[in-house]
C-alpha cells in the first residue's frame, strides 16, 4: 500500500515538473519569474473566470477495497462548476460538483463487480492556464453484486446489497488542447488516470 502511494506520488511529480517548466519564462527574458503566477489564467490572476463543464473517463486501481484477484475499475464523471471564482479572491480557484458512475471488480477465478454512484465536491487551484490541482470529498452509493467482500485486509459477508461510503482524494489536471485534459487522482478508495473533455 505504501509502495503504491509512493509510486503514484512520484508519477504525479514527474507529470507536474515539465508542466510547470513549460509555463516558466525563457532564460533570456527580462520578465521576473514571479510574474509566471500573475499571467492570465495563473494562480494569482484576480480577473473574473468562466469555467466549462467537463465529462471525464477514468481507468483505475480500487485499492481501498478489493476481492480475490487483481482489482481494476472504470468510471465516468460529469463536472459542473458552482463557483467559477472560488472562495479566495486573491487566488485563481474554483469550486465544482462532480458525479458519475464507477464499475469496479477483480479479475481472478471469478469476477466480483460493484457499481458505484459517486457525488463529490471539488476545490480546484489553477496554477497556470494549463495546469491545476484539486482536492475532492464526497460519498459513493455502491451496489454489490456478490455477498462476499474484502475491505482493508478483512474478508467477510458484504454489509448489504447497497452500501454508502465516504470518498476523497487529490488530483491534477493538465490541459493539452483547448478541449481535452489529462487527469490523475490519488485517494480513497481509488488511484486513477483519465481524460477530461470540456463541454
Overview of this structure, please?
- Helices cover 11% and strands 53% of the residues.
- It has 199 residues and is mainly beta.
- Residues 17-32 have low confidence and may be disordered.
- Strands 1-3-4-5-6-9-10-11 form an 8-stranded antiparallel β-barrel.
- The radius of gyration is 19 Å and the shape is elongated.
- It is built from 1 helix and 11 strands, in the order H-E-E-E-E-E-E-E-E-E-E-E.
- It has a single domain (2-23, 36-198), classed as Beta Barrel (Porin), CATH 2.40.160.20.
Itemize the secondary structure elements and their pairings.
Blueprint: H1 2-22, E1 54-61, E2 65-66, E3 70-83, E4 93-107, E5 114-126, E6 131-144, E7 148-151, E8 154-157, E9 162-175, E10 180-188, E11 191-198
Antiparallel strand pairs: 1-3, 1-11, 2-7, 3-4, 4-5, 5-6, 6-9, 7-8, 9-10, 10-11
Top keywords for this entry?
199 residues, mainly beta, Porin, eight-stranded antiparallel β-barrel, 53% strand, elongated
Please work out how many helical segments DSSP would assign: 1
Q: Which sequence of SSEs, written as H and E, runs from N to C?
A: HEEEEEEEEEEE
Shape: elongated
Rg on CA atoms, Å? 19 Å
Mean pLDDT: 79
Widest sheet, order of strands = 1-3-4-5-6-9-10-11
CATH domain fold name: Porin
Number of E-type strands: 11
Q: In angstroms, what separates the terminal alpha carbons?
A: 36 Å
CATH second-level architecture: Beta Barrel
Fraction of helical residues: 10-25%
Short characterization:
This protein is mainly beta and 199 residues long. The chain has one helix at 2-22, and strands at residues 54-61, 65-66, 70-83, 93-107, 114-126, 131-144, 148-151, 154-157, 162-175, 180-188, 191-198.
